[in-house]
Design goal:
seven-stranded mixed β-sheet, 778 residues, five-stranded mixed β-barrel, alpha/beta
């Protein structure tokens, strides 16, 4: 007789095999599985329950599911608040999957019922009794299966249902459970169940023997503890209770300048230690706690330098430029020399990579005479990393703050918290919130670590944090004094290379000053053509490459008995020999004026950069296309600029009807790089006017500024970085918002003298400068 094949939705299961006549609750969260269930419910149809071979695979595929499953009837369906479904399903019968359909919405199969082959009922009766008897023994040993299960199994008359019920209660691997499901004959199923139960019973007997042995060992350790306690009592009666370890702790307590609360806590712990067995795990926990409390510095400050001239000399020797930071440190030292007690300042050095934030922290410690401690916060996700773990946890320890204080050995070190903007957070807590107490001068005098459970005074500590951006929680930002470190100018980089990088590179690569000479012009060309950065990290790498190649040439010449090579001279003419072909084009400005191409200026975490805004027009219906991986704010800037152009089209000499007949495509190159922010508003406006009036934009003009619907130009941030990038790019004229004119005071003279900076209030002023043949604007 041919077996009827039908089409059913399929539900792939993980870590469970459902047998016929079983009623099981399932939680369904995968999209395709939810759609399959909805389909079965909507069409009042059964669903095929099929188990995955690999439970770790998120998207179940036909190759990853078994070929035999169970046809199930949906009894109840409940949608949970998180979007998952709770479903109650009853297994109906075994089915064999013939093939999978091409349904993309959910898994769908064509399957046929598997008829059961039942032989001599007398033999089946005997087998069923043997299985029930064996199962009773398994239940007694397992103790995980309630006794009521035995009662219900004895009441089952259907042998097929009995076999499946017993199989569902066995602790088997998924592959073994699937093997039982696939067994078509009842005899085969009973025999497999007997085999699996025999193996499980053997395993359980071994486990019970191990448990008995462990219990005996525990009784032995308790006996030893009792005898140790008796020994202590005898020693006490004899007067022999001198404990070297406890007396050592008492000496440390008397020498350490603990707070009143800490002293009481430590003495309590010492008393507790006296009553404990030395070998107990609790005694080890108490010892570790005492070692930590007595190991950190309590009211133990180091002598802080008060000579302002000496401090300034140290800062100048270690770092070139950075006048604002140096001035703030000298101010702090000046106040400290007058006042007896000054709370340690909390500074946040913000700037692009490679400008010397971390090394500046070390230099400040040297200038102020404080011990230097550094803790990296990048990628930290656990609040316990800052505050420590509670002592109830095994292997608990204090957080990074207390560890740093122990490492410093003084109560007034300089504590550098590196990469504070890279803090993460997850279910274990938010470390940035834990730092709020540490970095608040009003609270950190009573900093409470979870491990110590004592108030510890951090008010004398000088905290310095570093970050690449101000993208961090507002309350944390509010507690710190922000000092911005912008990128270096070309002249500053040359001085840094000569004064700091080259001596360091010569020492690291064992190069004598008489063996290698690099001219200022060569260093300038390295900066221009081989690096593009705000800091000096890549410059250091390139100079180190020159040093290594130079020393290689010298040594090889000596080995070849060629004494002619005594000094390697690197100039702009032979630079390519050491560094290869030029990596970057200096002066990124366009070679000629273009219609619809405007040079904008952008701020990034690694400094400023030049941005080109391009636009083309084409016949259409007034649609604007925006590409270049632009953020929402930048897209809105294009919409605003377009509206300003349309509103003043007559003044700009643009036929209003052209907007209905022309499509415009605005693109910002380097499409893979995400871009956002409002500061390209006037550049967008200039590009649109240029493309609609067919007027070229001057190649040597760059601009930055936000635009309003009224045509006003609003101020922007990151002006220094943007002007530095314009200088690097060979731009001669930069248009900035009028409100940013006050910020020019902080811009180095070499930048302001190297280009013409034009402040503007209205977009009409922009067009008169930027367009080669400007139209009459409003």
């Amino acid at each position: 007789m041919a077996v009827k094949k039908e089409k059913y939705p399929a539900l792939p299961l993980r870590d469970i095999v459902v047998y016929p006549k079983m009623i099981v609750p399932l939680f369904v969260g995968r999209e395709k599985s939810i759609r399959a269930l909805q389909e079965a419910v909507d069409k009042e149809q059964n669903i095929v329950l099929v188990t995955q071979k690999d439970a770790a695979e998120e998207e179940a595929s036909p190759e990853n599911v078994y070929g035999v499953g169970t046809l199930g009837a949906v009894l109840q369906l409940l949608k949970l608040p998180d979007g998952t479904l709770k479903v109650l399903i009853e297994g109906v019968e075994r089915v064999k999957i013939d093939k999978f359909t091409d349904n993309q919405e959910y898994m769908e199969v064509i399957a046929a019922a598997m008829p059961e082959h039942e032989k001599d009922s007398l033999e089946m009766e005997a087998l069923s009794r043997a299985v029930v008897s064996q199962f009773e023994e398994y239940v007694k040993l397992s103790k995980k299966i309630p006794a009521e299960v035995l009662v219900s199994i004895n009441q089952i008359e259907d042998l097929s249902k009995m076999a499946d019920t017993i199989a569902s209660h066995l602790s088997l691997k998924i592959a073994d459970k699937q093997e039982l499901l696939e067994a078509q004959s009842l005899k085969e199923r009973f025999e497999k169940i007997l085999g699996f139960m025999n193996a499980e019973i053997t395993m359980l007997e071994v486990e019970n023997r191990i448990k008995t042995r462990v219990k005996k060992q525990m009784e032995k350790s308790q006996k030893e503890y009792y005898l140790n306690e008796q020994m202590k009592a005898i020693q006490k009666e004899l007067g022999d209770n001198e404990d070297e370890e406890l007396s050592e702790y008492m000496k440390k307590i008397s020498k350490t300048r603990l707070s009143k609360e800490a002293k009481e806590k430590v003495l309590t712990e010492v008393k507790k230690l006296k009553t404990m067995s030395p070998m107990s795990s609790e005694a080890t926990v108490v010892r570790n706690y005492l070692d930590w409390v007595l190991g950190i510095p309590w009211k133990k400050p180091s002598r802080v330098k008060k000579d302002l001239h000496e401090a300034m000399a140290v800062l100048d020797a270690d770092h070139y430029g950075l006048e604002k930071v140096k001035e703030r440190i000298i101010e702090y030292l000046a106040v400290q020399s007058r006042a007896d007690k000054v709370k340690g300042p909390i500074l946040c050095l913000v700037g692009p990579p490679g400008v010397g934030k971390t090394s500046l922290g070390r230099s400040i410690a040297k200038a102020t005479g404080r011990h230097f401690v550094r803790a990296s916060l990048g990628g930290m996700r656990d609040e316990a990393e800052i505050r420590g773990h509670r002592r109830t946890y095994i292997g608990s320890m204090p957080g990074k703050i207390i560890k740093g204080m122990k490492k410093a050995g003084t109560s007034n070190p300089l504590f550098l918290l590196d990469e504070i903007d890279k803090l993460g957070n997850d279910y274990r807590g938010d470390p940035s919130s834990a730092l709020l107490e540490v970095l608040d001068p009003e609270q950190n005098s009573t900093f409470n670590d979870h491990y110590l459970e004592l108030d510890y005074d951090l008010s004398d500590v000088m905290f310095i944090t570093t970050a690449n951006s101000l993208d961090m929680p507002r309350p944390l930002l509010d507690r710190m004094e922000i000092i911005r470190l912008s990128g270096y100018t070309e002249e500053e980089k040359i001085e840094i290379a000569k004064q700091h990088l080259l001596p360091k590179i010569f020492e690291e690569n064992a190069v004598k000053p008489t063996e290698l000479f690099i001219s200022d012009e060569a260093i300038r060309d390295v900066i221009r053509y081989y690096t593009r950065e705000a800091g000096v990290r890549n410059l250091e790498r390139e100079l180190a490459t020159i040093a290594r190649k130079a020393i290689k040439d010298i040594i090889m010449a000596q080995e070849d008995k060629d004494t002619a090579v005594k000094m390697v001279k690197v100039t702009e003419k032979n630079l390519e020999k050491y560094l290869g072909v030029i990596k970057y084009r200096y002066g990124e400005a366009e070679d000629q004026d273009h219609i619809g191409v405007t040079t904008g200026l952008a701020w990034t975490e690694v400094g400023g950069d030049i941005l080109f805004i391009e636009a083309v027009d084409m016949p259409g219906k007034g649609k604007i296309t925006q590409t270049g991986k632009l953020g929402d704010v930048m897209k809105e800037s294009i919409e605003t600029a377009y509206s300003v152009v349309r509103a003043h089209s007559k003044e700009l000499g643009i036929d209003p009807e052209i907007f209905e007949k022309t499509d415009i495509h605005v693109h910002v190159p380097e499409g893979a790089t995400p871009k956002d922010g409002p500061s390209a508003g006037i550049a967008m406006y200039t590009t649109l006017v240029s493309v609609l009036t067919k007027t070229p934009v001057r190649k040597d003009v760059a601009m930055t500024g936000e635009i309003t619907l009224q045509g006003r130009v609003l101020p922007i941030g990151g002006l220094k970085e943007k002007l530095l990038s314009a200088l690097r790019g060979g731009i001669k004229t930069v248009i900035i918002p009028k409100d940013n004119e006050k910020d020019l005071v902080e811009i180095p003279d070499i930048v302001t003298k190297g280009m013409k900076i034009i402040p503007v209030k209205e977009v009409s002023e922009v067009l008169s400068v930027a367009l080669r043949r400007p139209k009459k604007a409003r």
